[in-house]
Amino acid sequence: MAVDFKAVGHYFEQLRTDKHLSRQQLANNLGWSEKTLQRIELGQVDMKLSQFVAYLDYLTASAATAVALTAPPTAAPEYVDDKLVAAQAAGDDGALAALENALRAFTGRGVMPWVHHELAALALARAELAGNLRQATAVARRLFKAYLQYDQLTPFDYRIVARLIRYQPYAELRGLYPAAALGQNHFRWLAVGRLAAPVQDAIYRGLFESALASGDVAAVQEACTMIQARPVAAENLHFQVAQREATAMLAALAGDVAGGERQLAGVMQALTMLLPEAAAKRLTAGMRRRWQQVLSLQ
Q1: For 86-92, what is the mean pLDDT?
Q2: What's the whole-number mean pLDDT along residues 103-115?
Q3: Residue in 84, 82, 111 with CA at minimum distance from that of residue 98
Q4: Minimal CA–CA distance to 99: which of 110, 115, 108, 89?
Q5: 8-18 confidence digits (pLDDT tens)
């Protein structure tokens, strides 16, 4: 039987990162060189049986799980999460339910922490599609608290955390970063500057949504200022729109409601010209909702 070394290597890497171990730390603990471990995780070598057993034994995983993980959707967490995001964007609860069932079936073959987290992310997505804000908030806050127990997060963790930010009380989020670091893309618990742009975008937008939910004018102004100050690449049009929206919000909060309305109208008109109709409607509806929230703060 042919062995997919890359799939097995990816599984081993995920086992390690789920335990929040660096490659060097695990290599030292196993008595291997970091280079050897790197080649195994990249699927570049056919490892010895003794290495296979030592790896699984140290990380308390089963050989059966390693063998079973060569086929999607359980082979890679990013693959599963991409399907979750696509299904939610399409409003397809049936696809989300099927993905949830596949993951639950997988739990009988040995579970890694990311599976539990992705199941919670699925529950959040389904609650959002159903418009059940109370359930979505409960799921998001419970999962966020679980992540706060970790000293460091994996790239996959960050993908989920970015979607949880908006549900957290702003005062609690405010405690995760010092005032001196607002312009440095850095929070005590997560270094935003090292994350992929879409994840950074989601974190900042989540902070803004959380500030709005707080009903605190100073919090909204602070979140808008953070969005304005964040350097973004020229091709990141999505976040540039968020920055223009933040500028309109700040104008309204400073008393220039008419000026803010003009700025926001310009942004929404541009969106209708640049994006497909469905996407433009979704984004402009969100802007109108946030605008009304800002006006209610005055």
Answers
A1: 88
A2: 69
A3: 84
A4: 115
A5: 787 788 888 87
Structure tokens belonging to residue 76:
């890679």
200 Cβ contact list (under 8 Å, min separation 6): 185, 192, 193, 230
User: Would you state the pLDDT for residue 51?
Assistant: 84
Interval 237-250 mean pLDDT: 93
Q: How far apart are CA 14 and CA 8, in angstroms?
A: 10
pLDDT in tens, 114-130: 888 999 999 999 999 99
8 Å CB contact between 121 and 160: yes
Backbone Cα Rg of the chain: 22
Task: Tell me what the mean pLDDT of segment 119-146 comes to.
Answer: 95
Nearest to 74 by CA among 29, 26, 106: 106
Label each residue of the chain as H, E or C.
CCCCHHHHHHHHHHHHHHCCCCHHHHHHHHCCCHHHHHHHHCCCCCCCHHHHHHHHHHCCCCHHHHHHCCCCCCCCHHHHHHHHHHHHHCCCHHHHHHHHHHHHHHHHHCCCHHHHHHHHHHHHHHHHHCCCHHHHHHHHHHHHHHHCCCCCCCHHHHHHHHHHHHHCCHHHHHCCCCHHHHHHCCCCCCCHHHCCHHHHHHHHHHHHHHHHHHCCHHHHHHHHHHHHHCCCCCCCHHHHHHHHHHHHHHHHHCCCHHHHHHHHHHHHHHHHHHCCHHHHHHHHHHHHHHHHHHHHCC
Tell me the HSE value of 92 on the side-chain side, using a 13 A CA sphere: 13
pLDDT score at 142: 96
**Does 181 have pLDDT greater than 70?**
no
